[in-house]
Amino acid sequence: MSKIGTLYGLGVGPGDPELITVKAFRLLQQSPVIAYPKKRMGSKSYAHQIAEMYVKPAPDKEMLGLVFPMTRDPEILEREWTNTVEIVWERLSAGKDVAFVTEGDPLFYSTFIHMMRGMQAAHPEVSIVTIPGVSSFLGAAARFNLPLADGDEQIGIIPATEDREAMRQAIESHDTVIFLKVAKVLPMIIGLLKELGLADKAAVATKVTSSEEMVWTDMRELERAELGYLTLMVVKKG
């Protein structure tokens, strides 16, 4: 039996193709298989676009698009994830290293987390190596030149939900709060900030660092805005 390949989780940053580590670049060059989350239709993901910028087409280089189910049905999720893990295992068992590219960081709200867990459960003999990447909230902090935490300040990274009281507690309990995927509850969050006298302490970014980046520092401009999925808000009290 041939040597089992290594599964790499490569974070390639939030959108700017230059925000990729030297190590991730090297592994993209070396790995015979580049796996990426594939959309069923429409445009390519940032991870896919960035990988293609650094990978030269070659007969011995496979670009492996993996479709992940967008559902909460546990039976469908288990079936589709099992299938996806086995597709990657087929390459690994043939002795090929697989570099799985993700936006941001592989271990921060990433599809790679599910791939890693599934592979560990089904094929524990596979060596898994994670290469950190720049997350979107770090890209946003840099874009706004906003220190996220200094000294003893506390920071919270919160997936935005419709639970108004939980969102209020998050704001009140931290010096800085990053609300991820905030678009779906933006009016509610802005309302909370107004109640707490913090409307002028917030900044919002969509597709931060990418060529499609949009930023707002005036919450009044956002009250009726329809923003995309990749939108986050930074609230800095100090």
TrEMBL record:
Keywords: Cobalamin biosynthesis, Methyltransferase, S-adenosyl-L-methionine, Transferase. Residues 6-221 form the Tetrapyrrole methylase domain. Pfam families: TP_methylase. Pathway: Cofactor biosynthesis; adenosylcobalamin biosynthesis. One of its GO terms (molecular function) is precorrin-2 C20-methyltransferase activity. The keyword Methyltransferase applies. GO terms for biological process: cobalamin biosynthetic process; methylation. Belongs to the precorrin methyltransferase family. This is Precorrin-2 C20-methyltransferase.
